[in-house]
Specification:
Elements lengths: L4 H19 L5 H13 L3 E6 L7 H18 L5 E3 L8 H8 L5 E3 L7 H10 L3 E5 L5 H8 L6 E4 L13 H12 L6 E4 L3 H13 L4 E6 L5 H10 L3 E7 L3 H11 L2 H11 L2
Parallel strand pairs: 1-8, 2-3, 3-4, 4-5, 5-6, 6-7, 7-8
Helix pairs in contact: 1-10, 2-3, 3-4, 6-7, 7-8, 8-9
């Protein structure tokens, strides 16, 4: 039976990220450390995030993180390490071995069913955590973590809530910011929406909450950077690296074809 042309295109689209991973190694820990050090010297704080290959074992992932953490600590970089708890097997000992270099840790948010274990590990490790505005559970998590001393990253969230997304993402984001306002530890505002960034940062600043604007490497940030400059807020760049990064980025670009056009318009100031 002949496979329809659209079906072949669909198969090729989902196969491409895997092909890319097999042929592009991605930055090593040492290369990422040098890149982050250059950014730090230019005044940009960094949050490296390791995207491991599909077959990587937790011990190998932890080894990469230890090498990176040691290099960043020796360079005196203003850095955070964005760990993925499942990649480390939710192993507290591996997390502690990474933390020994003295670079602060923050856990990325993945799917909602993994949230409870991730936040438990973050609290046990005195690490920060990301809270997705699109999850219903995040309001309770924010209230519980508000008075802690670890960093919280406020994000929209990539993976949907199994119970359904909120009707208004911006409203949900600002609701979380309101819960976190008046905390003493830093809140990272991770968004590339300049209107939402300004509203959230103003809310936190008015409450006396230390905050930063967080941006993802590769996404447009001209307008949001202008907001940060206007408000006198520091910018931190999430710097993904590793063999899984470019396949992941390609997959997102294929799923959201408007992203390259958005980046081009941001570059030329349109």
């Amino acid at each position: 039976m002949t496979v329809p042309f659209k079906a072949r295109l669909r198969e090729a689209r989902y196969a491409l990220p895997g092909v890319l991973e097999r042929h592009i190694a991605g930055e090593t820990a040492e290369q990422a450390a040098r890149s982050c050090a250059r950014l730090a010297r230019s005044g940009v704080a960094v949050t490296p995030g390791y995207f491991h290959g599909g077959e990587a074992e937790p011990a190998a992932v932890a080894d990469t993180w230890r090498r990176l953490a040691t290099s960043l600590a020796q360079a005196g970089c203003d850095a955070l390490l964005a760990l993925k708890a499942p990649a480390l097997g939710f192993d507290g000992e591996l997390v502690r071995s990474i933390a020994e270099a003295g670079v602060p840790l923050v856990f990325d948010s993945l799917t909602e069913p993994l949230a409870a274990r991730t936040l438990e590990l973050a609290e046990l490790s005195s690490a920060g955590a990301a809270l997705p505005a699109r999850w219903r559970r995040s309001a309770g998590d924010a209230a519980r973590l508000r008075d802690g001393s670890s960093r919280i990253r406020l994000i929209k969230g990539e993976w949907a809530d199994p119970a359904g997304d909120p009707r208004d993402f911006a409203e949900a984001y600002l609701e979380l910011a309101g819960i976190l306002a008046r905390r003493r530890a830093t809140v990272g505002v991770a968004t590339h929406d300049p209107v939402l960034a300004e509203a959230t940062l103003n809310m936190l600043l008015d409450a006396g909450t230390p905050c930063e604007l967080e941006q993802l490497r590769g996404l447009p940030r001209r307008r949001t950077m202008a907001v940060a400059r206007k408000l006198g807020v520091r910018v931190r760049l999430y710097y993904p690296f590793g063999p899984g990064w470019w396949p992941y980025a390609l997959d997102k670009a294929l799923a959201r074809p408007y992203l390259p056009l958005w980046a081009l318009r941001d570059l030329i100031g349109a």
